[in-house]
Amino acid sequence: MREQALQRLKDVFGYGEFRGQQADIIEQVAAGGDALVLMPTGGGKSLCYQVPGLLRQGVAVVVSPLIALMDDQVATLQELGLSAAALNSTLDEHTQRLIASQLRNGELDFLYLAPERLLKPRTLQFLQTLNIALFAIDEAHCVSQWGHDFRPEYLQLGQLAELFPGVPRIALTATADERTRQEIIQRLKLEQAACFVSGFDRPNIFYRIVPKDRPRQQLVSFLGRHRGNAGIVYCLSRKKVEDTAQWLSEQGFPALPYHAGLSTDLRASNQRRFLNEEGLIMVATIAFGMGIDKSNVRFVAHLDLPKSIEAYYQETGRAGRDGLAADAWMAYGLQDVLMLNQIMANSEGDERHKRIERHKLDAMLALCELTTCRRQALLGYFGDELPEPCGHCDNCVDPAPTWDGSEAARMALSTVYRSGQRYGVGHLVDILLGRDNEKIRTAGHQHLSTYGIGKHLGEQEWRSVFRQLIARNLVEIDLDGFGSLRLTDSCRPLLRGEETLLLRKDVARSAPVPGRYADKPVIAESDRALWESLRALRKRLAESHGVPPYVIFPDSTLVDMLRQRPASLREMGMVSGIGAHKLERYGADFLSVLQQGDQAEAAADQDRQRAQEVHALALAGMSAEQIARQRGLPEKQVYLRLAQAITAGQIALQHAVDLPEEQLEQIQDMFLNDAEEDLPGVRAVAEQLEGTVEEGVLHCVRAALLLEIAG
After folding, report:
1. Closest CA to 241 of 259, 253, 263
2. H or E segment to which residue 84 belongs
3. Do the beta carbons of residue 670 and residue 690 sit within 8 Å?
């Protein structure tokens, strides 16, 4: 079975070997067993049902929550030469009848359905007349009533076990803590399923979390390292989404808004553009993302705090699905916590549900305020262990300084207590700083013993103290008190002086940190021109086939092309991600671009070699005229190469030209005397000299002056 699976993997999908637990999962399902698969985004979940779907007789039925995701998967499979279709509400009756006919005739390998469509009695009765290879339930965490992507229809998918007793079922998700796993098993009736947990680590993602301090400027500073890359910026409110998208566009970053309040047509149009165009930024609420299979999203930025670690993990996981380096960046503030608490307080649901949501938010805030490895904490939340710090997060490569905040924390806690535990952070900071305003005077808080005792710290420093006290559960936000703080029992040892408290010191970090993974370019600068040629070809092919570019080939395949530089179709077939169908369809086109690039590179190499020969001969004492005769080059070209060598600091002016000192000084003065900001061009000085000096000589003199000025 494994040999057959490996052959399909190579022939159809173009990969030489399975990753992680893929082979075990495929063997389990292909043999007729059920499986629950937890695998990080980009880990290859789709192959876990696609390969057994091809190995087993009949059609593989895939349950997927969003139409966009279905369409994307169908297009991807069709590009691989497989027969796939999606039945959803966007299809007219004629197309639906055509798909039904294909199913009856056994002509489809894969059928994608939303749970709502699948669970219709008519659909279930029809499927019972077919030969079903397997059921794949994608995004299985949608079954969890405690989750952030809950879909009520998923609760009814357990009936597939009774209606199709001989058909294997595989449930897949990238996001599920232990509670959610148990819910999936129970509700989908997967008690006998083999459970495969591949770990949650996404080593290609660099995590950075910063306190908010002029967040728009912070965002633009971050985006400066990602010009030309596709990414997602998440905001909490619809208005903020639209304002941010407009502002980014004005700053020269092409951005589109996406939220549930936009018209269906505009949402669909913006999503289609994001999928099909290179380098667009989608500014969105959490309504966007689950249906996106775009593999080359290079960054995900959060301008507001997500409400849980599960949400943060899944949203950041939309970056770098192709396995190449990606960034997850977030700016957060105390106001985010207050807003999310208010949303929870006003939401529907019983107290138990609200309490669980509150704990999830507390865990998210604690992740933000960490001074240790982010990845260790993130994985630990899901029960996954990382023995050593990752070295690929902000706290690992750029640790925040810490300070003994015990006394400051006691001042803050005392202020909460003495003001009656009825005020929010802004007012508490005003008390500590001894500010004189109407609210202070009305409450009589200028008479408190803590009034004005905190002037040794600034407002932002006190806000950081309160934020960290909340994160450490030493104070909590009163859900019914409009953001007021109250003490928790766990603060007593600190107040009594029995414990000390180490706090992180917030520092402004404007400069990028060297040596971190996400800052390494996807391709070498020397390959840039060829990379752009490959991307341009991919875009033309994608437009002609009506699919997103990454469906033709993901970025990782283009990177492997550049690495391997195939010289024949046989060698092209060895590139990762190129199966037989795509090799036949696109191999020759991409090979042609690579060969043109190699020819251009060979010409550039030859040019560099000639330039080096010219430099060497000049250093050996030969004149430009002698070099031109010996190498069979025009004298003007020799001078231009010598001027380039002077600019690069490879040779001195005296090696390139032989002029009397007085004449040389005269020419230098002509350049310098006419200069207002920049030196005049060679042509202007040549006209003054009335052709008595070779223009090539003037190029060399000007190059030497520029080097001297720059130095």
Report:
1. 259
2. strand 84-87
3. no
